Amino acid sequence: MPTSGNGISHRLTNRVALVTGGARGQGAAHAYRLAGEGAAVFLADVLDDDGARTAEELRAKGFDATYLHLDVSTPDDWDAAYRLLDAKHGRLDILVNNAGIVDVTPLEDLGLDVWNRVLSVNLTGAFLGLRTLIPLLRKGTGSAVVNTSSIFGPSGAIGYAAYAASKAGMLGLTRTAALELAPDGIRVNALVPGGVSTPINAQEPDGGVVPETPLGRRADPTELAAAVAYLVSDDASFVTGTELVVDGGFSTR
Ligand SMILES: NC(=O)c1ccc[n+]([C@@H]2O[C@H](COP(=O)([O-])OP(=O)(O)OC[C@H]3O[C@@H](n4cnc5c(N)ncnc54)[C@H](O)[C@@H]3O)[C@@H](O)[C@H]2O)c1
User: Fold this and answer.
1) Nearest-CA neighbor of 120 among 68, 180, 181, 78?
2) To bridge 150 with a disulfide, which of 1, 10, 145, 167 should be the other Cys (CB 3.0-4.6 Å)?
3) 18: left (phi over 0), alpha (psi -120 to 50) or beta
4) Is the pLDDT of residue 102 over 70?
């Protein structure tokens, strides 16, 4: 297996990838890793300055990276992404539905507007992305989708009703999409991160889930990116409809 100078293998040469929420945090790490393994990567986000900067950093390393403004909850933005991908490559090999937002509100106080917003970004966004891009994924090579869930999807967490519901929904969407798209050779899996050091939880009091995490720390985003790179590579060619839990042991307690 050929590797780049830093020992990372080149499993994704000639693949075309789209990573939502690619401007920063885990999405940026996924974009780095996929590009480092040879993919042409589109970073989609609503944080245009951060996204443009991240794509520029990737290009400065010699990688193929393009930023595009894409609000995952907006069908028209997905249609525009479809047209761009179709015009530039005529296909898509890798889709990482990573964009997400969080809300922490006791159930009794949770407003319908907040509930709808969290569901529309975290779950509907992934649905729209999948539905829109299936025709391009059908034309891809070894096509694979990763949907980012969370340990709060399978487990639930006090104050996280909308977030946990959206992340549990991601698991149902993943399993069903895997069944429907298997005949097309498109694999669909979920990533289930535990605590990860990113801006989304920078304000969390008391280290969030760290006290309940056997490895005693949050993950670095690159540790999740390694899991995504595996799932979308041919190393995972018989892996579909499952969940890859990367949580420092949180779920074993
Ligand atoms: N950090 C954690 O501890 C943790 C744990 C489990 C799961 N997750 C999930 O991992 C994913 C990545 O989060 P992160 O930790 O990198 O946090 P983050 O806040 O750094 O990244 C989330 C990204 O999604 C983007 N985004 C938000 N709304 C969007 C929209 N409507 N359209 C497009 N992009 C949008 C943000 O701008 C941001 O770039 C999220 O789905 C999150 O729920 C995070």
Assistant:
1) 78
2) 167
3) beta
4) yes
CA-to-CA separations, 73 to 45, 81, 137, 157, 176, in angstroms, rounded = 11, 13, 20, 24, 20
- Average pLDDT of the chain, as a whole number: 96
Give the relative orientation of helices 161-181 and 125-138 as an angle to the nearest 10 degrees: 20
Specify whether the CB–CB gap between 29 and 53 falls below 8 A: no
In the numeric block, which tokens belong to residue 235?
Answer: 């190393």
Q: How far is CA 183 from the centre of its chain?
A: 23
- pLDDT of 207: 78
Q: What are phi and psi of 247, to 5 degrees?
A: -135, 15
33-71 per-position pLDDT tens digit? 999 999 999 999 999 999 999 999 999 999 999 999 999
Tens of pLDDT along 107-150?
Answer: 999 999 999 999 999 999 999 999 999 999 999 999 999 999 99
* Mutation pick for ligand 1 pocket among 26, 147, 167, 246 (CB with most ligand atoms within 8 Å): 26
Domains in the chain, CATH or no CATH each: 16-246 (3.40.50.720)
Note the helical H segments in 61-106: 75-88
Whole-number Å distance between alpha carbons of 126 and 73: 8
Q: How far is the CA of 200 from the centre of ligand 1 (A)?
A: 6
Closest CA to 245 of 206, 166, 189, 205: 189
Ligand 1 site, CB within 6 A: 20-21, 23-27, 45-47, 70-73, 98-101, 121, 148, 150, 193, 195-196, 198-201
What sign has the CA pseudo-torsion 27, 31, 36, 38? positive
